[in-house]
Structures are given as C-alpha cells and as structure tokens.
Amino acid sequence: MNNEITAARVRVVGENVPNPGVFSLFEAIKMAEALELDLVEISPSVDPPVCKIIDYQKFIYQQKKKAKEMKANASKVIIKEIRFGPNTDEHDFQFKLKHAQSFLQEGSKVKAFVFFKGRSILFSQQGEKLLLRFALELEEYGKADQMPKLEGKRMIMMLSPAKKK
Predict the structure, then answer these.
(1) Within this chain, do residues 114 and 55 fall inside the same structural domain, yes or no?
(2) Where are the alpha helices (DSSP H) in the chain?
(3) Which of 3, 14, 51, 154 is least surrounded by CB atoms within 10 angstroms?
C-alpha cells in the first residue's frame, strides 16, 4: 500500500482513474494523493504489478462485512443421535422412528446407531437389518449418507434431511 510498494513501475486501475495504464510508482502515488485515496497493490506477481486506487479503510470494512454475511448465511449442521439395541422391540422402533422423522423435518441430520454390549456383537447382521429398515422407513423424510458400518461396538448410519421443494 502506498510507499510500501517496491516496484519501480506499476499498472494503475480503478473506477476513479481517468486514464488507466503503466506509470512510475511516484506518478501513481501522486494520482492517488490527488484523489485523496490510497494506492493498493492487487497483483504483485504480474509484471508490472497491478495497483488499484481505492479508499483502503473502506475496502477493509467491506471485506469484513462480506465475511460476516457469509458466516451468517452458512447453515449450522445439527446432528441428533438415536440409539438402538440389537434386539429393539417393534414399539420402541416406531417411537424412535417418529423422533427421527421430526428431527429430519426440522432440518437436522440423524445419526442412528446400534450399540452392542458384550457378546451381542454376534448379532451384527440383526443390527444391520434394523438400521436398513430404519432408513427405508424414513426414505420420504431423508436419505442415508452411508450404509451401516461397524465401528468398534457400534454400527453407525447417518441420514440427511430431504431437500425441501
């Protein structure tokens, strides 16, 4: 910016520059001072470097404002967990299914998992069937991100909400 620029000749651009082109650094700084603005180096790697005549403080303010807007518009991902046992009863399954439906309708992701205690790990096929049935029942509310996979004593499956029309 201004006197910190090291190149001898620079290409000057900007909305308020009457005749853009290549100037010596001294002339470019004079042009910026005449407009009461700053000479800011935009592309230092090009020959000659590109500089823009702008109000630097205003430029910084606008960059921060854009970053804040982008952060505000970014959606927050909420993950709700639903836990099953390998021998979950039909009533419990339906109860948890209704909870998962409401979670998916409000836009949250659902992490469904079957927790195996002790020797119940022998029933891993039963747990996989349970999770696949769970995903099938929730097909109209969301889609499965991944197939059920065994991680230690847990078989995990993630579901994302369906796109709203």
Answers:
(1) no
(2) 25-34, 56-73, 90-105, 124-137
(3) 3
Number of domains observed in the structure of the chain:
2
Q: At 92, which amino acid appears?
A: D
In Å, how far are 58, 95, 100 from 83, measured between CA atoms? 52, 12, 11
> In terms of domains, do 12 and 62 share one?
yes
**Residue 40 near residue 27 (C-beta atoms within 8 A):** no
Last residue of a domain, one of 23, 54, 72: 72
pLDDT digits (tens, 9 = 90+) for 17-69: 777 888 888 888 888 888 888 888 888 888 888 888 888 888 889 889 999 88
Stretch 126-137: mean pLDDT: 88
Residues 152, 96, single domain; the answer is yes
**Domain boundaries, position 126:** 79-161
| Count of positions (residues) in the chain | 165
Residue position matching structure tokens 């995990």: 156
